[in-house]
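Tokens for MFS transporter. Go.
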Amino acid sequence: MTAPLERRADYRVTFAVLCLGVAAFSLLQSMVNPVLPTIEAGLGTDQATVSWVLTAYLLSASVFTPIIGRIGDKVGKERMLVVALAALAVGSLLAAIATNIELMIAARVVQGIGGGVLPLTFGIVRDEFPRDKVAGAIGTASALLAVGGGVGLVIAGPVVDALSYHWLFWIPMVMTIVAALAAAFYVPESPERTPGRINVGTALLLSAWLVALLVGVSQGHLWGWSSARVLGLFAAAAVLLVTWVWAEARSDQPLVDMRMMRIPTVWTVNLVALLFGAGMYATYAFLPQFLQTPESAGYGFGVSVTDSGLLLLPQTVASFVAGVLAGRLTARFGSKAMMVFGAALTALSTLALTVAHDQVWQVVVATVGLGLAFGLAFAAMSNLVVAAVPQSQTGVATGMNTNIRTVGGAIGAAVVTSVITASIQPSGFPQESGYTHGFAVLAVVAAGAALVGLLVPVVRVATHVVPGPQAEAELASTVEP
């Protein structure tokens, strides 16, 4: 269903607003990681409890990203973009003024609602931009996720040193307020709408299996992987996942159309996203720790939080450059080629870290390779999913792809945590072999993503599909040459 036409804003203004929102969300994904000990001390809590500052955000974003994307497909992407940005702003305000860990965790849950910014951005780009500009815009917006993650690691230390950790939330709050106001005034209403109601039952099932899985994964190293709590959560996640798929397949108004998820391009790209997310988020989590490890441990460089961020700045610049160039490279070589190349470059870069990490320049060179890989692969995955689904399902499809990448990141971080901390020195730092094995695991995972990427068919779907098993799905596709 198409909304009434109205006077459209210049797409470049729309794009600037969208990029500001994506940047604010991506900053909040990474800025908190390096300063968790500072937050722990400031709020008078312990390490196990403060870890929920990350876990709560991860859970909330995973649950709300596809749901907000689906609601945007139905009621309008512009108005849901304003809602998502407003949630980011409110959550940032609560986190900035939090004087206890309970309010901080609640604030991070509210911030996670802002995960809907990502699928809404991709949907608005597809609705509003000239066709020849869509791939480049999606590439740049996707790369901002990697860029924002890197910038967060870079600026966290200087912000805390110069001001306090509270400003890690004040800054994104200002950004999101500006973006929300600009979205309300300058981003036009969506011309594409999906009819039907929001299936609350399947939304609850989706939320339930995601929460069970991610709590088990994120807390496994603290509770014990063989503990009854963790095993029980994994069992519950498996049962709830099967129930959710069954319920969606039988629903006249599914939250996530299972026929869409079975499109060959969609499910193969989602599998690449799972593997790629595992490598990328684990890299962001553990490289700063490696750099900050004192040389007395037999490895590491003993740098401060601020200096470790600066050493990762070239990686951030490389991600931005890759995102800017992604549109032109995609037009010439295709999104599939860029995704496979990005995954292969990730494998080579993490392999380089595995065998050579004794000098600062070796780490910097490897991280520049990772930055280029992240920028290209993020752009390619989003473009492939957008091209493969009907326009009316862009939000939920890209939301699920983002969500699956996040789940992969949680699993990757948990696995690498277990590998790195398997052997601890008397000083309390992991053995160097732990990091070596961890980097090797990431190289294998990235190589797997590249191999799966070779199986991705490049498909364009130009039809409008109304979700539901009773509707005739016009999913006839043509494979690009």
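The longest strand covers residues 459-460.
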